[in-house]
């Protein structure tokens, strides 16, 4: 069983996601983190998440900024070189 969800990204726009609910006893939870240009409904993300859910591990899969059902612009995704988080050298 799947449930569609939306949640706020760290940079503001909302992301679209799907939770694959575990069958039977809940053994744990995971997040399927895919490549930037893939989406929550890519065959790999869908197959792996559904298989894990069938084995009792609930999974969240989501669309990145500006991809699929998510808001925002993929071009504004922070990269390590543009990150607002101080690097180890800056600390």
Structure description:
- The protein is α+β, with helices and mostly antiparallel strands.
- It has 1 helix and 4 strands; from the N terminus they run E-E-E-H-E.
- The protein has one helix at about 45-55; strands at about 1-10, 15-20, 30, 55-60.
- Strands 1-2-4-3 form a 4-stranded mixed beta sheet.
- The longest helix has 12 residues, at about 45-55.
- The radius of gyration is 15 Å and the shape is elongated.
- The N and C termini lie far apart (about 45 Å).
- The model is unreliable at about 80-90 (pLDDT under 50).
Features:
single chain; 91 residues; alpha+beta; 4-stranded mixed β-sheet; 1 helix; 4 strands; 27% strand; elongated; disordered C terminus
In brief, what are we looking at here?
Helices cover 13% and strands 27% of the residues. It is α+β, with helices and mostly antiparallel strands and 91 residues long.
Strand order of the largest sheet: 1-2-4-3
The main pleated sheet reads as: 4 strands, mixed
Ranges where pLDDT stays below 50 over 5 or more residues in a row are: 81-91
Order of helices and strands: EEEHE
- Report the helical percentage: 10-25%
Instruction: Tell me how many strands there are.
Output: 4
């Amino acid at each position: 069983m799947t449930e569609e969800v939306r949640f706020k990204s760290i940079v503001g726009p909302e992301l679209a996601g799907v939770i694959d609910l575990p069958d039977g006893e809940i053994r744990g939870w995971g997040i399927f983190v895919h490549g930037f240009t893939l989406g929550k409904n890519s065959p790999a993300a869908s197959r792996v998440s559904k298989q894990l859910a069938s084995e009792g591990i609930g999974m969240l899969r989501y669309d990145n900024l500006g991809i699929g059902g998510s808001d925002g612009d993929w071009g504004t995704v922070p990269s390590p070189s543009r990150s607002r988080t101080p690097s180890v050298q800056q600390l």
